[in-house]
Amino acid sequence: MTNDDASVPDLMPVASLFSGIGGIDVGLSRGDARLRPCLFCDVHPDAQAVLKHHFPEVPIHSDVRTLSRLPPDARVLTAGSPCCDFSVANAERVGIEGEKSGLLREVFRLLSTAPGVVHVILENVANILYLQGGAAIREIGERLSTLGFAFAYRVIDARAFGLRQRRRRMICVASRGCDPPWWLLAHSEPPVVSRPPHLLPHWFAGFSWLDGHRGCGFENDVVPTLRAHDTLYIQSQPAII
Q: What 3-state DSSP class applies to 144?
């Protein structure tokens, strides 16, 4: 425990799987100083480099499949597992049986030997709720219930927090002994749309020719979802008019 830790009572150490560059974890710590990361796990070297820079004191594990257990002091688990096999941008969409999105099951393997974890936050694309008749979300619910968690889930758009990008994500909150629906469903604020007059004095819209495999994506006052594979060499590059 560091001197800074000593000044924060009732720490809630957070174990982060599929951490990326730590977006979920930064948000949690900004919302509550007790929520401090105690473990990161991500396979991508670039993500690891960012995590090492911003959280030099937090250990990083590279492969969730070889992680034998969570830290014994972990009280919260976060996981933004791969969306590749759930996403509408993937023509095959094999769901939770896919090689990458199937890694979500590693979350439950680790939870099964972590009785100290009392809260779980899962994040993925909205299509996880609908693909194959909701098979993945049913399995998530069944596995969480078996482990003694109550849970709730909803789709949240990044626009609701003032970000000028359409990015809808399924958020699932689970807890042992608390009421996840109250946390996750109590507030339903409309999207925050601010139009800086000195930057955007006129109406505009964002669009992309391929919104997954559904055709043209079009939205007022925001840009479409920005995807990792969007480059200057792909015809579906998002644009603004």
A: helix
